[in-house]
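Hello,

Our lab assistant flagged a job as stuck in the queue for most of the afternoon. It eventually completed. Since we weren't sure the result was trustworthy after the delay, we are filing this so someone can double-check. Below is the sequence as submitted and the structure that was eventually returned. Let us know if re-running is recommended.
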Amino acid sequence: MTNQNISIINDLDDNFSKSKLAHQFTNGSSKEQFELIPQLINMGNTGWEILIDFLKLSNIDNIDLVQGEVFRELYQVKMPETELFIQEYFPNGLAPLDSQVNINYKSLSKLLLEQNFQEADTLTRKILLELAGESALQRKWVYFTEVANFPVMDLNTINTLWWLYSGGKFGFSVQRKLWLSAGKDFNTLWRKIGWKKGNHWTRYPKEFTWNLSAPNGHLPLLNQLRGARVADSIFSHSVWSEKNW
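-- returned structure --
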């Protein structure tokens, strides 16, 4: 057998293995897909190509957590192949950065993709001040009556970025679901998401957990020391019914 024939057979074997892996990933359950993502990333080019093809064929009008995890992992590879794909297909990230009031969400998207959660949290609070208006910017905190005027589009963008790039662990919608499951009891919520331990408030910033080992709903932070009214207003905002969270 010639070297050329051996090369052709090896190529066929590689193509078959790639096709089999691609089929396994594309047709697997969400749990199976999550388990396969790091394996495919660690394979190098072959694995990256499978994940890239998966995103190219995905319905990005209805983004799910598997797509978010695939994109975040490819983003962190930072190799010419993956960076070229991202620049060509998703230069602003996987999630739309829509704003009704012309706020630029690129920095927030980038921080969350890189899992720089502490800086993303700080930026989120600044954006909420901007959404609340000039008075809030001057006083440097949001008053609960200002929350109802937050544009649905912007609150949805903020929440989607946090939810998508944390694997569904963080975001206002996650906090809201935990609040509802606790019978809308904020003291129970604060303890469940790690903002309070016993009778003591978690101290900012050192006692908060700025990575994915944190409890579900741990981030983004709200100033609960001023009471629960801002949180209540956010959890009661019309975005949750209009966007079907």
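-- support follow-up --
The delay was a queue issue, not a problem with the job. The result is valid. The chain has two domains: 3-89, 106-242. The first helix runs from residue 3 to 26.
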